[in-house]
Structure formats: structure tokens, C-alpha cells
From TrEMBL:
GO molecular function: DNA binding; transposase activity
Pfam families: Transposase_mut
Homology family: Belongs to the transposase mutator family.
Function in brief: Required for the transposition of the insertion element.
The keyword Secreted appears for this protein: no
Domain of life: Bacteria
UniProt keyword list: DNA recombination, DNA-binding, Transposition
Biological processes, Gene Ontology terms: DNA transposition
Name of this chain's protein: Transposase
Organism: Candidatus Francisella endociliophora
Length: 68
């Protein structure tokens, strides 16, 4: 099973936290720049470690696909 709900909720929480600290923005571009910087920072923290367990799952999925 792959769960993405916690990841999405965590991302939304991080964006809300970042924008809540700054109450007003001079224009839409400044808000978008801040959100993009937040997303880049979140991605660097989230994907800091490589996924190593996927090879086992990939082999199992390939075997099941071959049976079909």
C-alpha cells in the first residue's frame, strides 16, 4: 500500500505555516515566490534519504504482472 495523505497534509501544513507568519504580501508574485521556496525546502527535507525498499516491491509487482 502507498499512502500519500500524510505527505499531502504535511505539505499543506508547511505552506500554511509559512504564509501565516507573513500576514500580507505586496503582490501575487511575492506570495508565489514564498510558496515555491517553501516547496523546494520541503522537497529537500523529504527526499533527503533514498528509497531503498522499492526494489523488493518492484520484483513482487513484476511477478504479479507476469502472471496476468
Amino acid at each position: 500500500m502507498i499512502y500519500t495523505t500524510n505527505w499531502i497534509e504535511s505539505l499543506n501544513k508547511e505552506i500554511r505555516r509559512t504564509t501565516k507568519i507573513r500576514n500580507s504580501f505586496p503582490n501575487l508574485d511575492s506570495a508565489m515566490n514564498l510558496i515555491c521556496a517553501c516547496l523546494i525546502n520541503f522537497e529537500q527535507k523529504t527526499y533527503k534519504y533514498p528509497v531503498t525498499a522499492f526494489c523488493k516491491v518492484k520484483d513482487i509487482l513484476d511477478a504479479k504482472i507476469d502472471k496476468l
